[in-house]
Amino acid sequence: MFYRNCILMFPIAMCNYFVGFFICRVNCSFYFKIGACRHGDRCSRLHNKPTFSQTIALLNIYRNPQNSSQSADGLRCAVSDVEMQEHYDEFFEEVFTEMEEKYGEVEEMNVCDNLGDHLVGNVYVKFRREEDAEKAVIDLNNRWFNGQPIHAELSPVTDFREACCRQYEMGECTRGGFCNFMHLKPISRELRRELYGRRRKKHRSRSRSRERRSRSRDRGRGGGGGGGGGRERDRRRSRDRERSGRF
Questions:
Q1: Residue 129 vs residues 55, 125, 134, 152: alpha-carbon distances, Å
Q2: CB 120 within 8 A of CB 16
Q3: End-to-end CA distance of the chain
Q4: Are 142 and 78 in contact (CB under 8 A)?
Q5: Is 177 exposed, middle or buried (0-12, 13-18, 19+ CB in 10 A)?
Q6: How many CA atoms lie within 13 A of 243 on its CB side?
Q7: Cα dist. 244→83, 136, 231, 234, 240 in Å?
Q8: Are strands 152-155 and 55-58 parallel, antiparallel or unpaired?
Q9: Of all helices (H) and strands (E), which one includes residue 207?
Q10: 114 Cβ contact partners less than 8 Å away, ≥ 6 residues apart
Q11: Within its chain, how far is the Cα of 20 from the centroid?
Q12: From its phi and psi, is residue 151 left (phi > 0), alpha (psi between -120 and 50) or beta?
């Protein structure tokens, strides 16, 4: 009887173990922080993809010419830092302008300069509104860029300070391009002032127009009050005339 109960209970115990294993899987911290994981679908932890977010990821869309330029005989072509920065600024401005003109106001845009397959060429765009991000993902997945189909998805990344490699920012990252945290490629100061300064000018013009409207309303109220005061004075004068017998 004892052996029979053990034989019956063993499959149940094993089943509960495996059920508990799959239920109790923890979230992948790398995916939560940077929206990508080097293990991909093979990761033993959960990649909870958001159903709504301000941030979208355009996967593997940027190609660094210094990493991909080769001649016909297989030798690597030399690309100067100046040429590379010009190429990158043109790419950044094109994508940034397209996002704002077609989908909505962009709060922040970042491009990864990593070499790992899960991060190489990823572009992260953070919109001001979640509705704009959702609209962008739906539309971009039906579009192409540089002869390649765009793969866009909502990203869990909202704070890029947590996703960035701090050692890279200080010039001390020993992992190089294969670091698992973001190595964000900076744009030139001139382009930053142009893109983000343009947005500040829009906000200033909107606030000024609101101030003008409020001032005009205040003037209208003040003018109405002045008119009312003038009518009251006229009534007083007419009463005084009636009392004094004057017309």
A1: 9, 11, 9, 17
A2: no
A3: 125
A4: no
A5: middle
A6: 6
A7: 93, 79, 20, 15, 6
A8: antiparallel
A9: helix 189-244
A10: 120, 122, 177, 178, 179, 182, 183
A11: 36
A12: beta
* Local confidence pLDDT in tens for the 247 residues of the chain: 544 554 444 444 444 444 444 455 788 887 888 888 888 788 888 888 889 999 999 999 999 887 765 544 555 567 888 999 999 999 999 999 999 999 999 999 999 999 998 899 999 999 999 999 999 999 999 999 989 999 999 999 988 988 889 888 888 899 988 998 999 999 999 999 999 887 665 655 555 555 666 665 655 555 444 445 556 656 665 555 555 444 3
Nearest to 106 by CA among 117, 115, 96: 96
> Residue holding tokens 């006229």?
234
Pull the structure tokens for residue 104: 């909505």
- pTM given for the model: 0.69
Distance, in Å, from the CA atom of 30 to the CA atom of 163, rounded to the nearest integer, reads: 9
Which residues share a beta bridge with 47? none
